[in-house]
Amino acid sequence: MATPTPEDIASWPLPNFENPESRGPVVIGLTVFTMVFAVLFTGVRFYGKGVLRTALGMDDWIMLGATVFSIPVSVMAIVSLKYGLGLHIWDQKGPQPIYYKMAFASDMLFPMACSLTKFSLCLTYLRLFPSRSNKIFCYGLSIFVMSFTVACIFLMLFQCTPIRGYWDPGAKQHCINLRVTLIIIAAFNSLSDFLVYLWPAKPLWSLQLPLKQRIGLVVIFAVGSTVCVAGICRIYYLEVYFESYDLLWVAAYIYAIMAVEMNLGIICGCLSGVKPVLAVLFPRFFASSQHSTLNTNGRTLATYGRSTHGHPESFAFQQLSNSKAKDQKFEVLDVDGGKLDTERRMANGQRNFAWASSSGELGEGGRGVPVNGIVVDQVVDVSEEQREWGTRGKGDAGSEEWIMDDGLEEKERTKAV
Question: Where in the cell (predicted)?
């Protein structure tokens, strides 16, 4: 942080305590807007997955924790405007220890909110993409993020010794090099942003999806890219902050960018859980279709989504069998809240049946379906035929003929005697 020279001080305008120039509107606009939407999207996610689908997982609760930590960071940014944030140095009314106390708290809560968001996304990726490479990536990144968070909290807590030296300039203190520390932390945080928010781009985009779903993916990754850009902007303004003597004027932009980065990350992480609610509100645009067809390697996979009058949900299924029989048919049924009609299926001549559950509710016959699991049943016809001894017959499995030998019965009687 630079120290103003006598020439700089002489060039300052007279203090304006009545109507000073302020960056407060920027802080309020970006912080309130993103905070409200982060809370809203988290609530919609819990309503969609907890009420409509009854399928809350650990990733949902961790995202809720991220939202809880993000709220005080956003609130303290707005409250700090009363204590000098966003004002020029010549318009300050003196030292602002309350502002620096809130800044001290924000320095520890911000990495916790961001890290919990990324950890939640890693758990979501583990559920969606079961490949070995994805597991290695998610476990490795989760360990890195958690270790990084612990290191950040430790550094921010003991950046000055004694701790009160952060907000009390009169205390005899020893502080670490904040410039290097904060920029390194911001750089690693931005790196993890790129890794987490852009990791699923390739596997998702390579899927053969309808246009509406592709547009939805573009929106999700656009929000994720904005988070990454915000992280880079924060690094830039940290450099400006440490080169300037007008600290609280520059810090206003840093706080606004922190709110955007933190809250947009939560919004991006919650976008996938918004669809069930949108399907209820706008069934024409977001509800899954009742019948759809997927052609894969010349075979037809008939899928049955949930009715728009029930709890909306959609599942993307691959082929349910590796059989090469060209005439084999599959039927996919979603039975959350519903029952399978065995007689109707058999009457239609279907040979293989599957249903999925996102809630772990009972499937057909009272049998439990694992959460997010798929149960596959195969119907096998067994026929019996009685023939007289000595008559000819032909097996379905081969072309050979066989004769029921009546001498066999005589041999069995001899053994019994």
Answer: Membrane
